[in-house]
Amino acid sequence: KVLFLGYGEIGCRCLEHLVDQGMHVIGVVPRASDNDLETKVPSVASVARIFNIPQIDEGKLRCNDYLSSLKKQSLDYVVSVQYDKILKANLINTPKEKCLNLHFSPLPKLRGCYPTKWAIIEENHSGVTFHEIDEGIDTGHLLDQKTTKLSARETDQTLYLRLSKIANDLFASNLRKIKARRFP
Q1: Would you put residue 113 in left (φ > 0), alpha (ψ -120 to 50) or beta?
Q2: What is the average pLDDT score of the chain?
Q3: Label partner for 66 (CA 20 to 30 A): which of 5, 7, 124, 152?
Q4: What is the largest CA-CA distance in the chain?
Q5: Segments of the chain assigned E as strands
Q6: The overall pTM is greater than 0.85
């Protein structure tokens, strides 16, 4: 059982991967800005509606009664993809297995917000990291990572689009481990 927190096109693709692999997604928590039905931006909330997955208000993630109900349901994972809130310890400690995050940088470099912009400003490479969530900011145990060099004409948009493809492939390649509960 998975609680999915996500946003954007990569969030949509990762949610679809979970459903396609037969994972039981018990709820989706989209970003607060992901509730406009008229938008042209890919919407995690819309994908959840298509698959009849309950949409959970982000406020419930701070509610001890809700978190207790997730424990009683034997939640296995919380999976975060482009979610923009820092998760608190009581949520991190709720699943039986782990809280997982897909981050658009080669951690431990470029933790936190806007890693594509900072990669262009400060680095000659970037990447995507799949890691455990702990109480720090992108400090959890690294599970898998792919890196890529930046081109001389790299922009935030071109890098984000390239990293989205890498993130999709990295997430898809780790689905067997999620399903089999085989992370160290």
Answers
A1: beta
A2: 92
A3: 7
A4: 52
A5: 2-6, 25-30, 77-81, 98-103, 125-132, 142-149
A6: yes
